[in-house]
Amino acid sequence: NQEIIHYERMHRLNKIGLDYGIFFKDGYLPSSAFGNIVTVACHTKDFEWASAFIRESNHIILENDRQEGLLLAQAIIAFETGNLREVVSLLEKVEFKAHLDILRAKYMLLRSFYDLHVDPDTILDACAYFENLLRRPPKTKAAKAMLAFTLILKRLVAQKSSKKMIIELIENAPMLYSKKWLLEKTVYYKAR
Question: Could you give the C-alpha distances from 9 to 17, 41, 154, 180, in angstroms and in order?
């Protein structure tokens, strides 16, 4: 699979970059870069390395982002290993400062809520909050892809759109996070 090969290559490059200090800014790593490194390791299923990296290297996260960065990195491992209750426990009450950390945290929360079959009103409230956040600057590619994801997830939760319409929205979205996951969720979808 090309995607797996891509992540394995990125994981090797991340390790080299860490060894040579390529990612560091004044000796520290932004929390979003730390999270990216953990995410890539998880995509290669190298959870042991990711856990060790968090334990042994969390001191390299910029000091004012360290607590949030550490929490988010732990949530990434929980998310990627399917421990969704832990994701919710770690992230539900935290307000992140860094834009990419906010996107990553809210995205994992929304997916976790949905897969844990949390009350639809809770999910819709979380979607509305996230949508409002995503409509504000900076309107990055990541924010646009996350907004498309959030709008489609709202339709899945509300169960008011036809299955055909939701699938078309997923297939035609120019930028979209979790396309495969969203398509999987349409398999058993029924409008009310």
Answer: 12, 10, 35, 22
